[in-house]
Structure formats: structure tokens, C-alpha cells
Amino acid sequence: MEIKSYNNLLVEIEDDIAIVSINRPKALNALNTETLNELDDLTSTIAASKDVKVVILTGAGQKSFVAGADIAEMVNATPAEGRAMSLLAAGVFSRLETMPQVTIAAVNGFALGGGCEISMACDIRVASENARFGQPEVGLGILPGFGGTQRLPRLIGKGRAKELIFTCDQIKADEAYRIGLVNKVVPQEELIDTCKAMAKKITSKGSYAVTLAKQAINIGMDTDLASGLKLEANIFALSYASHDKKEGMQAFLEKRKADLTDF
Ligand code: DAK
């Protein structure tokens, strides 16, 4: 896989883990059109590759993950420009959510507006102790438009999501953990290592099975239980066709470490 160089993204590849940092320090890593285009390009490249199995998404620096969409760019945007940005962002966010790779948001500071929303498009969120989450959009005369009105209630429930969106309150990492918005909170200096350790644990399992489980969870959560269970049965059947299923079970019976290679 060939990774281009980007103006607003830093990309490091360590074995089969990609660490992607959004890097716009002057605007606390706010998402402008250029950054969204770069994320579109990078996530498409990674999604089509077998070289990366987990993506860790973070913000450069110690203060901010992503402070939202870029307000300076939006202030004079026309409805047509708003629509274009909406379509661009929807593509990036849903790719993060559905790509075969596992996506982990390493939330290292402010995750406001579009920042909170991009973290919610990731499979898993790990926050540093200084992280702050919030949806300040209604204070700017707009509403969350990168999926916040949909993903936030699905993660933390309708009542809590409405309170956060209607009040624009910022919540700290421990409160985000308490309400289920993040999976874990760690000191900032341990954030990336914690995410890498989680990523390594995931990549040590059957990656094809992980990707099938991701699909079953994602599609199942958007449907009724009976349909979800049928879907699970069909996706489960696919795992029976894999090398990893034979190898994983055989290795258990032979009391040896499995060599799981499918992806
Ligand atoms: N956009 C542009 N610049 C930003 C920014 C942002 N979101 N956030 C911070 N900055 C800039 C500040 O303007 C400042 O620039 P200079 O004055 O130094 O040039 C610099 O970053 C440092 O920020 P502060 O001086 O404000 O730093 P503080 O520590 O005092 O405060 C803060 C940190 C994060 C609390 C504060 O910067 C802040 O409140 N930032 C704005 C947070 C926010 O409201 N974010 C939500 C944006 S709305 C759409 C769908 C969705 C969306 C848009 C469109 N479509 C479908 C089209 C999403 C919208 C949003 O995310």
C-alpha cells in the first residue's frame, strides 16, 4: 500500500496498524474541506488494502482531538457548499464505520461537534483524561450534521443525547465513560500505547472473523432482532468457509497457537 503525503494528516504505519493524526494545530485540528478530502483519499486507500488491519485516529498535539468542523470556512458557505461538504463528510464517516479494518478513535483533547461525531463513527473510543466531548452546534445556529443526531442517541440513549445537543454542555472524559460514550479513559501519555495494545490484541485474532463480526454488529444494530439474528446466521456461515476457522479449531484441538491469516 502506498501512502501519499498530505497537508493536514500525519500517517505512521507500524506493522499492520495505521496511526492517523489530524494535524491542523492553528485551528485545534478542525475539519475543513481539504482535510476531509484527504481523509476521503486515505481511508479509501486503507479500506482497499490488506496491509492495515486497525486504524487509530487521533489529533496532533496535546490539546485537541478535533475541535469540530472549521467555523472560519463554514461562516460564508452557501447551501450548495454545505451540501457538498455534507456528502464528502458522510462518505468519510461511513467508510470509517464500515471499512473492513477496525477503527479506534484515540481522543486526546477537545472532541467537539464534528470531532465528537468523527469519534462516534469509529468502532471504539479511548479517551485521555483531558478529553472533552460536546455538540456545540445549536449555539452556532446549526444542528449536528455529521451524524451526531443519529449516532449519539444510539450510543448513549435518546435522553442523554438530547440533553448534550440541546444544552451544548461539554463533558469530561470520566463522564463520557460513565454514560458509555467512550470505552476507556487513560492518562494522556498512555493514550496511544493503550490504543496500540488494543489494536495488537485485535490483530492477533482472526481478522476475517473480526471484520465479519463488525459487519454483523453494524447492520444488526440498524434492524430488528429477528432480522439481525438471520443476518448473523448467514454471516456466520461465511466464517465456516475460511482457512482461519479450520486452523483456529484445529490448533485448539492440537493445543498449539493458531496461525490465522485470512483478511
Ligand atoms: N473552527 C475553526 N477554528 C477553530 C475551531 C473551529 N471549530 N476551534 C478552534 N479554532 C481556532 C480558534 O479560532 C483559535 O484560532 P486563533 O484565534 O488562534 O487564530 C485557535 O483555534 C485556538 O482556539 P481558542 O483560542 O479558542 O482556544 P481555547 O483553548 O480558548 O478554546 C475551544 C478551545 C475548543 C473550547 C474553542 O476553540 C472552541 O470553542 N472552538 C470551537 C468549538 C466548536 O464550536 N466546534 C463545533 C463546530 S460546529 C455540516 C455538518 C456538520 C458540521 C458542519 C457542517 N454539513 C452537513 C455541511 C459540523 C459543525 C461543527 O462541528
Task: Give a short summary of the structure.
This protein is of the alpha/beta class and 263 residues long. The protein has helices at 33-47, 71-74, 79-98, 114-121, 148-156, 158-167, 173-178, 191-203, 207-221, 225-240, 243-253; strands at residues 9-14, 17-22, 54-59, 64-66, 102-107, 110-112, 124-128, 132-134, 171-172, 184-186.
What does this structure look like?
- The chain is 48% helix and 16% strand.
- The chain contains 11 helices and 10 strands.
- It has helices spanning 33-47, 71-74, 79-98, 114-121, 148-156, 158-167, 173-178, 191-203, 207-221, 225-240, 243-253; strands at residues 9-14, 17-22, 54-59, 64-66, 102-107, 110-112, 124-128, 132-134, 171-172, 184-186.
- The strands form 2 sheets. The protein has a 6-stranded mixed sheet with strand order 1-2-3-5-7-10, with helices on both faces. Strands 4-6-8-9 form a 4-stranded mixed sheet.
- A hairpin with a 2-residue loop joins strand 1 (9-14) and strand 2.
- It is globular.
- The relative contact order is 0.11.
- The mean pLDDT is 97.
- It binds 4-(N,N-dimethylamino)cinnamoyl-COA.
- 4-(N,N-dimethylamino)cinnamoyl-COA binds at residues 27-28, 30, 67-72, 74, 82, 85-86, 110, 112-114, 136-137, 140, 145-146.
Q: How far is the first residue's CA from the last residue's CA?
A: 15 Å
User: Stretches where pLDDT falls below 50 for ≥5 residues?
Assistant: none
Please estimate the helix content: 40-55%
The strands making up the biggest β-sheet line up spatially as 1-2-3-5-7-10
Strand percentage lies at: 15-25%
Oligomer: single chain
Bound molecules: 4-(N,N-dimethylamino)cinnamoyl-COA
How many helical elements?
A: 11
Roughly what is the average pLDDT, rounded to an integer?
Answer: 97
